[in-house]
Structure formats: C-alpha cells, structure tokens
C-alpha cells in the first residue's frame, strides 16, 4: 500500500475504534473515499515498458516524464480504472504513496507528485485518460531530481523505492462561481516549535488556511495557532503585522476547463472571490476604514484578513477541542508525536464536516551527535537564537555561505536562489556548510524570503533565518520544506531583531577572509569547524566561531549582533 495509504487505513481504524465521534456528535468526522493501486502495478509498469535502466540513468526530468507518459499501464489496471471512473464523478486527487514516504525516519515529505483532477468531463474516456496520465506522472516522480537528492542523504538507494498510488476523493464544495474547494484546510502537529506566552512545546500547534492546503504545504501565509490557546495570535499583534501575515489569496479548483492555469488544476484566488462564494464569513475579519481596528465581522468597509475569529473566538464549530482530541488520540495510537493533514467543510444547513486526509509520525530524532572537540573560542559566539529546530551538536562544519544583508533585495529573491544553487553544487556529498540569509527559507512566495527548493540547498547542514526590521515575517515550520529540514536533522536558527538574546555577529565575521564572492553571497572557509549546539527541550541554540588561524583582538564596541 505504501506509506500514505497505510496511514489512511490506520486513520480509519483509529476513528472507528475511538470515542471521538461520540464526543463530537455535531461534527461529521471521516476519511475521504479512496482507492489504492499497490506497488505490484508499479513493478509491472516498469518491467513491461523496460523503464528501469532508463529511469536510473542521469536523465532530464522533462524527458523522463515524456517517456513515462508514452508507456502503457497493464490491461487489468485500465479495466479497473474504467470501472472506477464510471462510478465516481467527484473531483479526485492522485497521490503518491511510496514505500519510504511518511515513515518516521525518511525525509520524503512532499517530494513526490500529487495531481488534482476536476473529473467533471462529460466524456468517460477523457476522464479516464486524465487519470491514467496522472498515475504515470506520479510513477515518474519516483525518479525525478528532488527525490534523487533527498534519497542520497539516507541509507537507501533509489532502486529500493516502490510507488503505490492513492486515488482519493477531494474534500470540498462546489460554488455557483464554478469553483471547488474546502472551507478551510490545515495541519496539526504534536510539537509546537514556536511556543509563546503560556504555551508549551508538547501542547501542539495548528496551521490553518482558507481553501486547499497547498497554501500551507508551500510555505505561504497561513494562520498558526495553539489549540489550547486559540485566542493568542502573535501574528496579529498590530495592524501592520496583521496585514503582513494574513493570508490574502487562497487555492481553489476551477470547474471550468479553460480557466485551469496549471497541470495540478488549482488556481489562486483573492479573498474577494471567497466573499462572493460566502465562505469568507466563517474565518474573515476586517481592518476597518473608519477607525483602523480589526472587526470580527464582514459588515464593515475595509481590508479583509483571515483571522478565523468566527471559529476560534465565537465557536461556530468546536474546532480547537476537536484538534486537541485528534492530537491526543493520534499520539496514543501511533505511540509517538504525530502530524495530521485535514480539510473542513462548513455548511449553513448541515453539520460541519472534518475530513482526515493524512496521519504520519512527526520526526523528532536529534541531530547526529559528533565527538566533542576543544578547538573553539568559547567567548566568541557567531549566532545565538531563542527559537531553533533540532537537538544535539554538530562539530564538522568549516564553511559558511551568507547573503550579504546590505545587498539583500526582496525584489531579487529568485535571482538570489539561483546563485545559492550554484554555490551549493560546488559541495560534494560529505561536504556540508552553514547557510544564512534574510526572510523565510523555502517559501514559494518570493516576497516572503528565498524561494529555494531542497535540491538547491541540499548540502546545508545548519540554516539561519535572519529577521530584518523592515521584513517582519512570521516563521513557518508547517511546510513540506520544513518537514524535510526536520527529517534530515538540519539545525535551523531564527534570528529575531526584536529579541535581545538573538545574536548574529556580522561585524566580527568581516575580520575573516572571503573564500569566494557572488553578486549577493559570500563564502567563508575556516581551518577549524564551527560548534553548533541546539537544545531541543527549550529551543535555544548557539553557533561558536572556529578559533582563528591568527589571534584576533577587538573592542566590545566593535562586536555587535543584529
């Protein structure tokens, strides 16, 4: 069945064997309908079409997909798919479910493809052909560059991977605007990496977004809450912060063929269109034009924001209580911290519907610990952070790549990402480095930070996210990018300019010779390694400079952090 399908089977069993439905009788709780194509069909597809040698060669991703699309599925499978298409005319997602995916120790979250199909053509043949092509594309994604890069960091070889496919009902509603999407989607995690105020790390965290969860998976703007303290919203501490951090677009599926803008069939829409569909009322607030305050009602003129106030404050559905119960039930059932993906439909005349889309272990194994070395200047800290991800020590990094803060330009983030990729490719498999730069790493929104994919920073072992006063962006650990950061045991530091205990000593760094410079980047090489220490229990971490090859002297006034 593969990891994802196995998780769905487990979720069905967990819901049926717990008393969660009895506790929340006013909510319909279910796992969406799905069918699974097992890994035996993948083996047959690869063998019958003589694809193994071709797929394992160093082939371009585009050529790889073209060859897979020209290949044929087995007759047995095609007949079953014909029957499935005739019986099911709701929108469907064709999802990867590989053997290694979603297991507790593998870094493959979000690596393989998912294809969303409207499945609304009048022709059964057209709907069947789209489904078949989506399955072939999922098969091809097993061998694409991103998967290859991630598997190189594990003990597994790509030849060991096998792909099952889940064909799953897409949770959502059709609107008169000819759009289809859930009221909101989200991710629940057992561990909160950003506890503030009364919050504790083990109380969990939820990431919420209007429409499809692609917003969260891609690291775009979403709402992060503690299910135990849902009214504490640090993103909305001021009007300016609310405007910067609020979700302002959402993903939906157009049911009109000519309006579909990409192969995944999801389009980006404005909040105005959600208000037309009458879905914004369930989670929207307004920054009033009259007095510049946040009003938890759409009956005011002003800028619309996504605050989830009707749900979190006014309890239009007991979401936070259900979230806490889901996390505790899932953690008890799996025996470890968990991550749950879900979607919710709110109906005016029927019970709200909570659909569990995926459940998997949340990887929490610490950083690979290295033997203690004494070659450090204990009094010279390069970076210190009160909000980190990871646990343990790293004592082998002698390289630092940093985006020069004075040259950082939010308009040039795509260009900066390309330059990082060039530098990253100069590092061999066992040669790793520290990467530092402003804004959010791994976001698909270039206005929030550096939109790198994992392959472009694959040799980074420690990453520093530098906050800037003019770029006050809420950090995100909810995306697939950050799931891979966790699974690959990467140390992740966030440096907040408003937090006095957070330090990044750029001035001291300038005393060292630059090994190579790019348009935006500097690459430093040191004879001795940095000392990276992360405390997973309290989220604090520090990075000590290596001892210089020559004695360094400086005044206290010369050394200052950001």
Q: How would you describe what is shown here?
A:
With 562 residues, the protein is α+β, with helices and mostly antiparallel strands. The strands form 7 sheets. Strands 19-26-25-22-21-29-28 form a 7-stranded mixed beta sheet, covered by helices on one side. It has a 6-stranded mixed beta sheet with strand order 1-17-16-8-9-10. The protein has a 5-stranded antiparallel beta sheet with strand order 20-30-31-18-27. Strand 6 and strand 7 form a beta hairpin. The termini are far apart. The model is unreliable at 102-110, 368-378 and 549-562 (pLDDT under 50).
- Report the structural category: alpha+beta
**What are the low-pLDDT stretches, counting only 5+ consecutive residues below 50?**
102-110, 368-378, 549-562
Assembly type of the chains comes to single chain
Please tell me how large the radius of gyration is.
Answer: 24 Å
Task: List strands and helices in order, with pairings.
Blueprint: H1 2-17, H2 20-23, E1 28-30, E2 34-37, H3 39-48, H4 52-56, H5 61-70, H6 75-87, E3 92-98, E4 114-117, H7 124-141, H8 145-152, E5 163-169, E6 173-174, E7 179-181, E8 184-189, E9 205-210, H9 214-217, E10 223-225, H10 239-245, E11 249-254, E12 267-270, H11 271-276, E13 284-288, E14 294-295, E15 302-306, H12 309-312, H13 319-334, E16 338-345, E17 353-361, E18 376-385, E19 387-389, E20 392-394, E21 399-403, H14 413-424, E22 433-438, E23 440-441, E24 449-450, E25 460-466, H15 480-487, E26 491-495, E27 503-504, H16 506-509, E28 516-517, E29 521-525, E30 531-535, E31 540-546
Helix pairs in contact: 5-7, 6-7
């Amino acid at each position: 069945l593969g990891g994802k399908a196995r998780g769905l089977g487990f979720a069905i069993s967990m819901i049926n064997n717990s008393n969660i439905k009895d506790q929340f009788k006013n909510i319909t709780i279910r796992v969406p309908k799905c069918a699974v194509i097992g890994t035996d069909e993948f083996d047959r597809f690869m063998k019958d079409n003589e694809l193994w040698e071709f797929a394992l060669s160093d082939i371009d991703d585009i050529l790889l997909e073209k060859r897979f699309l020209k290949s044929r599925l087995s007759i047995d499978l095609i007949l079953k798919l014909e029957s499935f298409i005739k019986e099911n005319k709701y929108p469907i997602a064709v999802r990867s479910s590989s053997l290694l995916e979603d297991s507790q120790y593998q870094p493959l979250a979000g690596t393989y493809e998912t294809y969303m199909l409207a499945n609304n053509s009048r022709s059964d043949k057209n709907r069947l052909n789209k489904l078949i092509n989506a399955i072939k594309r999922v098969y091809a994604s097993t061998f694409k560059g991103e998967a290859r890069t991630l598997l190189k960091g594990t003990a597994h070889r790509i030849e060991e991977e096998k792909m099952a496919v889940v064909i799953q009902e897409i949770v959502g509603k059709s609107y008169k605007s000819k759009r289809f999407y859930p009221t909101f989607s989200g991710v629940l995690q057992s561990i909160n990496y950003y506890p503030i105020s009364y919050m504790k790390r083990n109380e969990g965290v939820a990431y919420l977004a209007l429409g499809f969860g692609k917003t969260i998976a891609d690291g775009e703007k979403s709402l992060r809450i503690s299910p135990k303290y849902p009214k504490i919203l640090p993103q909305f501490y001021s009007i300016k912060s609310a405007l910067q951090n609020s979700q302002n677009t959402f993903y939906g599926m157009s049911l009109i063929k000519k309006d579909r803008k990409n192969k995944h069939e999801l389009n980006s829409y404005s909040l105005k269109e959600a208000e037309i569909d009458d879905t914004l009322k369930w989670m929207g607030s307004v920054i009033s034009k009259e007095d510049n305050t946040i009003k938890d009602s759409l009956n005011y003129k002003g800028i619309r924001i996504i605050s989830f106030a009707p749900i979190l404050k006014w309890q239009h559905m007991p979401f936070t209580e259900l979230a806490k119960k889901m996390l505790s039930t899932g953690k008890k059932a799996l025996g470890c911290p968990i991550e749950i993906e879900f979607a919710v439909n709110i109906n005016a005349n029927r019970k709200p519907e909570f659909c569990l889309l995926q459940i998997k272990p949340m990887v929490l194994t610490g950083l690979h610990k290295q033997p203690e070395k004494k070659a450090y200047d204990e009094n010279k800290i390069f970076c210190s952070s009160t909000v980190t991800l990871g646990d343990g020590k790293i004592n082998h990094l002698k390289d630092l790549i940093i985006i020069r803060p004075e040259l950082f330009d939010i308009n040039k983030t795509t260009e900066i990402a390309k330059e990082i990729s060039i530098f990253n490719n100069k590092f061999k498999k066992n040669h790793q480095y520290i990467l530092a730069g402003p804004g959010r790493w791994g976001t698909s929104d270039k206005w929030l930070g550096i939109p790198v994919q994992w392959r472009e920073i694959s040799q980074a072992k420690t990453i520093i996210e530098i906050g800037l006063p003019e770029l006050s962006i809420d950090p995100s650990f909810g995306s697939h990018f950050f799931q891979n950061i966790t699974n690959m045991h990467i140390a992740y530091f966030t440096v907040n300019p408003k937090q006095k205990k957070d330090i990044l000593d750029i001035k001291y760094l300038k005393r060292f010779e630059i090994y190579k410079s790019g348009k935006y980047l500097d690459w430093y090489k040191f004879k001795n390694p940095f000392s990276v220490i992360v405390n997973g229990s309290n989220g604090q971490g520090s990075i000590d400079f290596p001892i210089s090859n020559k004695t360094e002297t400086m005044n206290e006034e010369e050394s200052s952090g950001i």
